[in-house]
Design goal:
20 strands; globular; 36% helix; 8-stranded antiparallel beta sheet; disordered N terminus; Jelly Rolls; alpha+beta
Length: 449
Amino acid sequence: MAMCPGQSASHVSFLGCNLAEASNSKRPSWTPQILVRWASWLLNRVMADSDHRRLILRNFLPLDLCKELQFIHKSCCAVGYRPNVFSTTLSHLIATNCSHLIMPIIPIRERLKDAVEEYFKCTLQLFVEFTGLISWCKGASIGWHSDNNKPYLKQRDFAAVCYLNSYDVDFKGGIFHFQDGEPEIILPMAGDVVLYTADEQNIHSVDEVTDGERITLTLWFSRDASHDEDSKLISSLSEISVDDFDDKCNSVLPIPAPINMQWFPPEESSKFSSGFDIRCGRLHVLGFELYSSEGIICGSPSEDSSRNLLELLQEPLVLAKMDELSASTFANATHALQVVLFYCWKFLDLKTELKVASSAEVSLASETQRAHTNHLKHIFVKDPQMAETFFGFRTRLNGDQNKFDWSGFSAAVSEWEAYTCRLHNELLLSLSHWRTHQFIFCFPHGKVE
């Protein structure tokens, strides 16, 4: 036991028991008063530990589900709330006609809410305040803070962070630190979850991401029903008819978000003098470019306006790769990106056996078409190196060009349509129950084709 300067052992006591006295006898004098003090000390230690309550759940999410959530985020994300951060909220998915993509997230929300309520002993007391897929790219970081450290965040009581990819495999840096308590350091690994209180008892920080894209599913929970996310989401879903079953699901093609939500860095979204469109940047690092199916070449980059850019990315587009043009036409840039990332997820990452046609219709781009494709790239990806820095850490297609073939990609187009249609019909089956009960939950509806 540490002593103050000038203090002798005879003056040092532990809970009122003189150490010198104890050392001169076989048994210290454990009086009732000392026992009370000892119990009080022990209780204080337990309470001190509980002040930093947190829980790590290893392998909470299976890796294939982590990859599915990565697909949803990368194909739909917009500029985020911090520098070099991109986010996909459930409200954003609904607003861009991708409501069906909330379906894989709903069971996870339920499991996380149950885990938080059980561990923190607040069963049936919590509401989901926020759900979002968030990625931190090179340069993103945050210093010491608690998650309720702003007046508009005081409603947050608990947090759950689900890591969807892994430190030192998919990104560098981005280590999570708690200021004190145990565990102090969290190395993000795909499938792991950390639960913690959102107040000053769990002050934490995140190291700067130095390479790659660190992706999480993040939720906050509140005891305040007025901050329940579900009621707002159900209201946003009001325009969807539960009778709108569609075998082709043509009604659920994605709608592009406003260009200012898709341009990085966001401060350039009015001038477009540097940076890149997020969708075009992701396509670029995967080796794809866009070609207008109308074959229209717009004016020089200096004449581009936000209206022209938005119109270009909203019109039908064709994908180009290695001087070849696909036969498929996509409704817009977001649609094209979703199908490309679906192909990467299912065919390259999961090695799914696709029903590949014997051949796919592609055409060799003419010199004029190549010039048009390069022109569009110059407009939408003004800084290709920046796009590659942010999104190119683990580029599958560029690293394995020999694995790409148009036949497999053509099969992925059909698989994407079936996937989208299945999720859309699951949403329709759940929606009436959500409206009735005014909260979002996982409704057991069996297999939906």
